[in-house]
Amino acid sequence: MARKRMTAEERKQSIIDATIKIVSRLNYDRATIALIAEEAGINEALIYNHFKSKQELQIATLDYLIEYRLQLYRSHPVFQDKNKDQSIIKAMGAQYLKSVENPEVDMFACILKASFAIEKKIRAKAWECTKAFYDFNMENLIEDRKRGFVDHHIDLNITAWEMLGTVTMLSSLAVNEKLGEFGIESFKKSQKDFQDRILAK
Question: Measuring CA to CA, how many Å separate 10 from each of 40, 143, 180?
C-alpha cells in the first residue's frame, strides 16, 4: 500500500521534528543539514525547498518549540473564565511538575542549548524564548493577583524570574539525566515552599 504523500506543512513539521532530535543529541553547531535530512528520511535538497539555510531552519525550530510549549500551558482549564476562583500559579506549578516527571527531554535540550550556540542569531532567538517564558510568568502573576491569590507585598518581576530559574534548573537536570539525584520529592517541597511564600491564600 502506497504511503500518503505529505502536505507542505506536514513535511516542514517533519523536518523541524528531525532537527529537534539531532540538536538534542548534538548541538546547534554540529547539527548539519545532512544529519537532519537522514533523520527525516529525505534528501538534503528537500530541506532547502522549505528553509533557505540551516540557521533559518534552527530559528524556525526554536519558534515552534516556544509556541508549542506556551500553547500547551495556555490550554489549561485554569485560564477559562469559569475557573477564575482558582490560582493559575498553582495550576501551572502542577503542570510543570507533570512535565518534569515525564520530561520531553529533546525539547528542553533544544531550548537550553540555544543559549550556548556559536551563531549569534541562535543565541538571540534563545533570549527571545527566555523572555517569552518570563512574560508568560508575569501575565500569570498579575492575573493571580487580580484573582486575590498573590500577596501584594511580593515583587512580581523578581518572582517571575525565580519561576523561570526553577524550570530551567529542572530542565537541565532532566536533560542530563540527573533528576533522580536531586529527587522529585525535593522539588515538590521546594515548589510548596515557594507557593506558600507568594500566595496570599
Answer: 12, 36, 36
CA of residue 174 relative to chain centroid, distance = 13
Place of cell 486575590: 148
d(CA 89, CA 199) in angstroms, rounded, equals 9
Question: Residue 199, SS3?
Answer: strand
The CATH number of the structural domain formed by 8-198 is 1.10.357.10
The answer to whether the pTM exceeds 0.85 is: yes
CA 38 to chain centre: 25
- Long-range contacts, 101-107 (Cβ 8 Å, 24+): 101/184, 103/171, 103/174, 103/175, 103/179, 105/24, 105/174, 105/175, 106/20, 106/21, 106/24, 107/20, 107/24, 107/65, 107/68, 107/69
Distances (CA, A) of 136 to 70, 88, 101, 174: 8, 11, 22, 22
* Packed helices 105-114 and 8-25: angle between N→C axes, nearest 10 degrees: 80
pLDDT in tens, 55-75: 999 999 999 999 998 998 999
**pLDDT tens digit string along 157-197?**
999 999 998 888 888 887 788 877 777 788 788 888 888 88
Q: What is the DSSP string of 75-129?
A: TSGGGSGGGTTS-HHHHHHHHHHHHHHS--HHHHHHHHHHTT-SSHHHHHHHHHH
